[in-house]
Amino acid sequence: MKVVVLGSGIVGLWTAEILSSRGHDVTVRALGSALSTTSAAAAAVITPLFPGRRDDPSFQRSIQWYRTTLERFTSLEEGAFIEWIPAFEFGITIDEAWYLEKDFRVDKFADVGLKVDYLRVDPSLAVENHVGDLQEITFGARFATPLCNSAVFLSWLESRLVQRGVRFHRCRINAIDQLRSDEADVYVNCLGFSSTELFPDPSVWAVRGQSMFIPVDANPAPHFGIAAGNHAVFKHGKGFYVGSYFIEGETNPRALPNSVEYHLSRTFTEETYPILCEIAGYEPQSVNLEGVTRVNSGVRPFRRGGPRIEYEVVDGLRVVHHYGHGAHGWTIGYGTALDAAALVETLGAR
Questions:
Q1: 178-187 burial string, b = 16+ CB within 10 Å, else e?
Q2: Residue 277 and residue 283: Cα distance in Å, rounded?
Q3: CATH value at residue 281
Q4: From CA 139, how far away is CA 127, in angstroms rounded?
Q5: C-alpha dihedral, 180 to 182 to 183 to 189, nearest 10°
Q6: Tell me: the pLDDT tens digits for 267-309?
Q7: Are residues 65 and 335 in contact, defined by beta-carbon separation less than 8 angstroms?
Q8: Strands 82-94, 25-30: parallel, antiparallel or unpaired by DSSP?
Q9: What is the DSSP track for 83-104?
Q10: Among candidates 262, 225, 228, which has minimal Cα distance to 240?
Q11: SS3 for 178?
């Protein structure tokens, strides 16, 4: 089949990788290279902290997608793209129940299959999620999580696709009619938040993320990540990632770096992070924010009900939708891409 994949983030590249490996003629249409996407802006932590109820079918599907995606990451280049580090997620208490980011209740860890240890935060510690939005942190959850170097991996995958014969067409897509010249059998919509410009979806809302990278020539172990509320600091072999990852309400798809998030991250890193390091059992860490070499920003498409993998005829064009991952493109993207590719291939059989 002749397939055009719209979007070159991690979800679009996984989709192109699967379809091209099965012999389909694949073109990727995107505004820029993979390194200009929100996926490249992400710290690429593969962590299955899915929102929603544990008995929700979308939550259960996400668990399977996560396992499939993690298996794929660890199989490529003998796991060279993955660095496993301890992660500490600090959360809040509501009606005597413990919650982490995005309504993740800790009893769902049993469904995810992660081995978790818990820490008490007593007295509680206030964290400013956003301006004027304070959360009282009361506990921490410790588990191992894989961290992927997003820039290195996306470059590797894009190069792999080019070598396989996948074509990349750099352009802005402003209207459906622009796609007709491709004369493709099917289009796969992996545009993320930008999808709503061509294919309106009222169930999608914007969640902004912004991260900063601080390189360190020699950043000795231990390496670990600490997150609380909207903020996180990951210490790894090449430096630090510092970020505000879940700022809701920003709808500008260009997502230029924002000083509000910078100051929130700075306050968290300088005032709160050292305290949380001690609670986690580490020497208080000092992060030189004057050494920031890169600021990445992007807008994620959170979607009620989880990712949309669905076939639709739009103005006479056959479209398979594959978007709405929110902050979980790295965590479940390969698993959802397998389902999207299967849907594409059912169209070829008609």
A1: ebeeeebebb
A2: 6
A3: 3.40.50.720
A4: 13
A5: -80
A6: 999 999 999 999 999 999 999 999 999 888 888 898 988 999 9
A7: yes
A8: unpaired
A9: EEEEEEEEEEEETTEEEEGGGE
A10: 225
A11: helix
CA–CA gap between residue 326 and residue 36 (Å, rounded): 17
Mean of per-residue pLDDT scores for the chain = 91
Residue 334 CA to residue 162 CA, distance in Å, equals: 19
Model confidence pLDDT, tens digit, residues 120-167: 999 999 998 877 888 999 999 999 999 998 889 999 999 999 999 999
Domain that holds residue 263: 2-348
Residues 6+ apart with CB under 8 A from 115: 143, 144
What whole-number distance in Å separates Cα of residue 117 and Cα of residue 143?
A: 7
Q: Is the omega angle on the peptide bond into residue 222 within 30 degrees of 0, that is, cis?
A: yes
In contact, 299 and 252? CB cutoff 8 Å: yes
| Amino acid letter for position 282 | Y
What residues contact 129, with CB distance under 8 A and at least 6 apart?
Answer: 135, 229, 230, 231
Q: How far apart are CA 83 and CA 69, in angstroms?
A: 15
In the structure encoding, which two tokens stand for residue 218, read together?
Answer: 């020699």
Q: Which two tokens stand for residue 317?
A: 């064009």
- For 215, phi and psi rounded to 5 degrees? -75, 150
**How confident is the model over 312-318, as a mean pLDDT?**
96
**Encoded tokens for 349:** 């059989």
The first and second tokens of residue 216, run together, are 């360190």
**The amino acid at 146:** P
Q: Which two tokens stand for residue 254?
A: 């260009």
The confidence score (pLDDT) of residue 257 equals 66
How many separate domains does the chain show? 1
Nearest residue to 298 via CA among 272, 264, 329: 329
Q: How far is CA 245 from CA 25, 49, 119, 309, 331, in A?
A: 36, 13, 23, 24, 15
Question: H-type helices in the chain, by residue range?
Answer: 10-21, 38-41, 57-75, 109-112, 150-164, 195-198, 259-267, 273-280, 329-348
Q: Find the helix packing angle between 57-75 and 329-348, rounded to 10°.
A: 100
Q: Which residue has the tokens 């668990």?
A: 63
Return d(Cα 58, Cα 324) in angstroms, integer: 12
